[in-house]
Design brief:
heterodimer, A: 314 residues, alpha/beta, two-stranded antiparallel sheet, globular, B: 247 residues, mainly alpha, Outer Surface Protein A, domain 3, three-stranded antiparallel β-sheet, 9% strand, flat
């Protein structure tokens, strides 16, 4: 196991904040959807408000009109950031252009916490520069990976002064190599979050996907997760394709994932937000009312399973 | 095996049409031992990696198609599939610099469309909008006096294009929006200028402006342009909006 870094811990200890229900910012939904009687916060992926360009490396420029439109839609609701372009696990270097963009984003629109995926999506090209592999891949469970990502997670935590969370990814690789002292994907997450003094975004649909695709019990796996570090939970829907359960974010939350939420929620003392995730493309076909029903169901589960937790609103 | 070697081999295999060769090359490049070679071989030959390749391809197809929605909407489903599929098979759909890749994909599509055609006009317009929009992020108007009369060669602006429409563009886009048949192709092309310094990135161009812009396919100095009859005012106007620039 890697040594604990000497830098002070990011402000994970300030949590729990009040429990809240959140949803992604989807420009295709009517602005009236983002109202305080339905939502407590909005999850923003700032890359969607950017224009990418190549300038001796990837640069992400916030587009003022898109940013303004998002701010108007979200009104006074607080926001959290859920990034997709950091590539925190890339051995050859993460995407520093993303961090420069996030610096500017935070100045324009402060956020409660910030999350990213425990994965990588760039490799070195033949010329040494980063090349996108087109989809995120999971990390092998090695001390080298735990140490590298832990250091980076600590750096991100300090840089923004708000909790930084790493999300457990869905993937289809059953035989990833793991060092003996790491053990499995849960061991890797534990090692990284301990080393980086950061929190976890527990994606229950990803856990469900991996359980189905790799043949383990998702409910038993909750015992392998450091639930004391979980600040946010993601819920989503998927579908079966060619024998795999796909993390498609195209539909409503399946019943087993709701049961996982009921089981996990009372065991997460720092939980501050549960978010229903849906890809922008599918939001209009799923419909605003069906999405609202899912959000109301999260509140019902909270009331039933952990009635004593401090809430943003009842 | 180092994390870098593991990621590089998996990442290359994800996009490779010949995974065995990719692995064989990596064995030498990263000095992978026998046990690790077996491990990585099992991983990439497994059903899960095969499915990941399909997921990755479908994301690349989606990103590519999303970058050229208007142009692709004018083509047949077979044409669309074929062009997007060929682009992704050639390594497209995964670039970090999404805007540049979108413009490059549209240039690729343009090479497969009849010239002239409304489809090609729309394709070039989408490409021009990407290029002008990307260049606008870092565009600052030049100090005009410095480039005039000193023999500094000028060239076409890197974020600029002239696009020709073979009917009134308003009629063309009204038909596209309504899903109606496209108007007949006119004989005369109406030039539109796309440039990063224009407030809306585009405006109607005069024939003289279009001629000047095409002339600067080969870099030329201002005195030489003036000797060919291009007015200083016209040169300065295009320079000011980034339609042309100093070499």
């Amino acid at each position: 196991m890697p040594a604990v870094p000497s830098a002070p811990a990011p402000p994970l200890g300030a949590y729990p904040g009040a429990f809240g229900v959140g949803f992604s910012y989807v420009p295709a939904l009517p602005a009236e959807f983002y109202r305080p009687d339905l939502l407590d916060f909005v999850e923003i992926t700032p890359e969607k408000l950017c224009r990418a360009r190549w300038d001796a490396g990837l640069s992400l420029d916030l587009v003022p009109d898109k940013l303004r439109q998002a701010q108007i839609a979200c009104g006074d609701l607080p926001i959290v950031v859920h990034g997709i372009e950091l590539s925190i696990g890339s051995a050859a270097g993460w995407n520093s252009g993303y961090l420069r963009m996030l610096d500017r984003f935070q100045e324009a629109w402060p956020f409660l916490w910030h999350s990213e995926h425990l994965s990588y999506q760039t490799i070195p090209g033949r010329d040494g520069g980063p090349v996108s592999i087109g989809t995120p891949l999971p990390l092998p469970g090695s001390d080298e990976a735990a140490q590298l990502i832990g250091e980076r997670a600590a750096t991100v935590g300090h840089r923004y002064g708000v909790p930084f969370l790493l999300e457990n990814p869905a993937h289809y690789l059953s035989n990833l190599p793991y060092d003996a002292d790491i053990g499995d994907e849960f061991g890797l997450m534990t090692a990284v979050t301990e080393y980086g003094s950061c929190g976890q975004l527990l994606d229950l649909h990803n856990l469900y996907c991996n359980a189905l695709n790799h043949g383990f019990d998702a409910f038993a796996a909750l015992d392998r997760i450091e639930l004391g570090r979980v600040i946010e939970i993601h819920l989503a829907g998927g579908r079966r394709e060619q024998g795999f359960w796909v993390d498609a974010h195209d539909s409503l939350v399946p019943a087993p994932v709701w049961r996982l939420l009921e089981c996990a929620l009372p065991r997460c003392p720092r939980i501050s937000g549960v978010v229903f995730e849906l890809l922008d493309f599918f939001a209009p076909s799923v419909g605003a009312e069906a999405i609202a029903d899912e959000l109301r169901h999260i509140r019902k589960v909270r009331r039933r399973c952990c009635p004593s937790i401090r809430v943003a609103k009842a | 095996m180092s994390l870098l070697a593991h990621q590089t081999v998996l990442g290359r295999c994800l996009r490779s049409s010949d995974m065995e060769r990719t692995i064989a090359e990596a064995v030498h490049e990263f000095a992978i031992d026998r046990e690790r070679l077996r491990e990585i071989g099992d991983l990439v030959r497994g059903a899960g990696f095969g499915f990941t390749r399909q997921v990755q391809r479908s994301w690349c197809m989606g990103r590519t198609a999303g970058a050229a929605q208007l142009t692709l909407s004018l083509l047949t489903i077979e044409q669309r599939r074929s062009l997007v599929g060929d682009w992704v098979d050639g390594g497209g759909g995964a670039a970090l610099d999404v805007t540049s890749e979108a413009a490059a994909f549209l240039a690729f599509v343009g090479r497969h469309l009849p010239d002239p055609s409304h489809e090609l006009s729309v394709c070039r317009m989408e490409e021009a909008a990407y290029r002008a929009s990307a260049a606008a992020a870092s565009f600052t108007p030049p100090v005009l006096t410095l480039s005039d009369g000193r023999g500094v060669p000028l060239r076409q602006g890197r974020g600029s294009m002239i696009v020709y429409f073979f009917t009134d563009p308003r009629r063309l886009f009204a038909a596209i929006t309504a899903g109606e048949p496209l108007p007949a192709l006119g004989k005369k092309g109406f030039p539109y200028l796309f440039a990063p310094g224009l407030a809306t990135l585009r405006r109607v161009a005069s024939c003289a402006e279009a001629r000047l812009w095409h002339r600067l396919e080969v870099p030329t100095s201002v005195p030489a342009l003036r000797a060919e009859g291009f007015s200083r005012r016209r040169v300065m106007a295009l320079l000011a909006v980034g339609a042309i620039e100093r070499c």
